Amino acid sequence: MKRFIARHVVDLPKSGIRDFFEIVAKMQDVISLGIGEPDFDTPWHIREAAIYALEKGKTHYTSNLGLIELRRAISKYVEQNYDVAYRPEDEVIVTVGVSEAIDLALRALVNPGDAVLYHQPCYVSYHPSVTLAHGIAIPVDTRAEDGFALNVEDVARAWRPGCKVLMMNLPCNPTGGTCDRERLEKIARFAVEKDLIVLSDEIYSELVYDGVHTSITVFPGMQERTIFLHGFSKAFAMTGFRIGYACGPAELVEAMMKVHQYSMLCAPILAQEAAIEALLRGSDAMKAMREQYHRRRDLVVRRFNGAGLKCHLPGGAFYAFPSVAGTGLSERDFAYGLLAAEKVAVVPGTAFGPGGMGFVRASFATGYESLIEACDRVDRYVQGLAKS
Amino acid sequence: MNPVLKLLIEGGHLTSAQMAQVVGLTEAEVDDHLEQLKKEKVFLGWRPVLDLSRESSAAVRAVIEVKITPERGGGFNRLADRLSRFAEVESCYLMSGSYDLLIFVTGPSLQKVAGFVSEKLSTLEGVLSTSTHFMLRSYKEGGYLIDSHPEASGRLKVAP
């Protein structure tokens, strides 16, 4: 059957997380720090809005771009929180998660052979998404010494003629890296200079713990060349709803819509109704969750450093990215060893790109008691390694 | 706000050692914060939230609306305080609306609760009238849903 499968799909590497997942799934009583979604259920009032919509018979297609009420709510939310104004009529498109928005943007922008810059370690889908759009993915390094922030020097070093798009994800999964205004401004100037389109995946942007998140869209010359991507999965714990959005110049949104109208037609109406509720009345619940993530972050980073695993303080998202170099083990051996010896699951950093070599990703989207227990077990495992 | 108070408000039941880890203090510092909250009468105590409905010794609970005469110089306070001291009274609140005090009462049987109302409560000077409602079934208790069919979390164990 393989001969029927498209070559570029055959060549897609298997997800680095998959193998690990297969093993963990078969084990009992594992404390998993390998989960990239909130442990919280969606706040009840948001779920209730979806249930109510269902009761009222909201079961039909919506406009391709999404319900106008949702687009208006998105436009208002983005203006209030990110300081950039988008017209709901033609500069906002509602998608099936940010994942679909990324796919739409790449398919709308990339000609075969166009190059797309992206910083790594990064979310598992970025490189494959570029490949699926027949583009060439060009990685940019980020480093622990900078807290995995993105530096313009590294972008410039990776850039070459033929680069069309710069993909950014700040705060970053898996590193928790964020960028201050100064760094972002330099990257913005570079993007303008090299006439790049920027795809800015800001899905974790509410979950920022020190200071305030800045979107690259606010800098001069950026709004007209940036596709701002955001959603509800992390801040409002709505991962399973599959709902997100893109905001950008009308012509780019129109191009994305052309793909979306044929591939998806529209995002699920129930998810859209729930999303409206989240934007209008979800901020208290979001802040309560953020406070918990903040405490958990401080706890986990302190414990890992205490155990001898050098771990930077992530500025956002809900992942710690400690180095296991001190143990003398590779990230894979460490992760598999920890799982076997102490039944704690962390994800080997190389699942997120070569820059993850020597690191593991530990999600702190888990309750306090489990986190404390997991940290005790990691500590015990590391001390055990030191003795042997 | 007192960092330990924030954790208490979240509602989980953590030991001092666990709280210490979460807020980045020593266990002794956490205990000091707790003592301070107790002194300020912000933290009144620990209570487990129980659903005893299926126990054979299941208690009977009632909600009683009480109308009382306010007193010169004390308003409702003196009488409300006196009522609150009965062991049967779990909670007592001053309410706006058509009655004055709302009292939650627990007793081993319907007769015992009715007896408390008629002998101890209604006879107090200043109590004008009472209206007793017996609880039939609890759906949610102290923030916990009483769910006879809890669903196991469907979260994948590893996800990107």
How is this structure best described in words?
The complex is a heterodimer of chains A (388) and B (160). The longest helix of chain A is centred in the last third of the chain and has 25 residues, at 283-307. Chain A is globular, with a radius of gyration of 21 Å. Chain A folds into two domains: 2-42 and 284-387, Aspartate Aminotransferase, domain 1, CATH 3.90.1150.10; 44-281, Type I PLP-dependent aspartate aminotransferase-like (Major domain) (Aspartate Aminotransferase, domain 2, 3-Layer(aba) Sandwich), CATH 3.40.640. By secondary structure, chain A is α/β, with parallel strands linked by helices. Chain A has 13 helices and twelve strands. In chain A, α6 links the parallel β3 (115-120) and β4 (136-141). Chain B has 160 residues and is α+β, with helices and mostly antiparallel strands. Chain B has helices at 3-10, 16-23, 27-39, 77-84, 110-121; strands at 60-68, 89-94, 101-107, 127-134, 140-141, 144-145. In chain B, the strands form two sheets. Chain B has a four-stranded antiparallel beta sheet. In chain B, β5 (140-141) and β6 (144-145) form a beta hairpin. The longest helix of chain B has 13 residues, at 27-39. Chains A and B meet through α2, α11 and α13 of A and α2 of B.
Features:
heterodimer, A: 388 residues, alpha/beta, Aspartate Aminotransferase, domain 1, Aspartate Aminotransferase, domain 2, seven-stranded mixed β-sheet, three-stranded antiparallel β-sheet, 13% strand, globular, B: 160 residues, alpha+beta, Alpha-Beta Plaits, 2 domains, four-stranded antiparallel β-sheet, two-stranded antiparallel sheet, 5 helices, 31% helix
CATH architecture grouping of the largest domain in chain B: 2-Layer Sandwich
Largest beta sheet: strand ordering of chain A: 2-8-7-6-5-3-4
Q: What Rg of chain A, in angstroms, do the CA atoms define? A: 21 Å
- Order of helix and strand elements from N to C terminus of chain B: HHHEHEEHEEE
**Largest sheet entry of chain B:** 4 strands, antiparallel
Count of spatially separate domains of chain B: 2
Question: C-alpha Rg of chain B, in Å?
Answer: 21 Å
**CATH H level of the largest domain in chain B: which superfamily?**
Lrp/AsnC effector binding domain/regulation of amino acid metabolism (RAM) domain
Give the structural class of chain A: alpha/beta
Rounded mean pLDDT of chain A is 96
Question: Which outline of chain A best applies?
Answer: globular
Structural class of chain B: alpha+beta
Strand content of chain B: 15-25%
CATH topology (fold) name of the largest domain in chain B: Alpha-Beta Plaits
Distance between the termini of chain A: 49 Å
N-to-C terminal Cα separation of chain B, in Å? Answer: 36 Å
Q: What is the subunit arrangement here? A: heterodimer
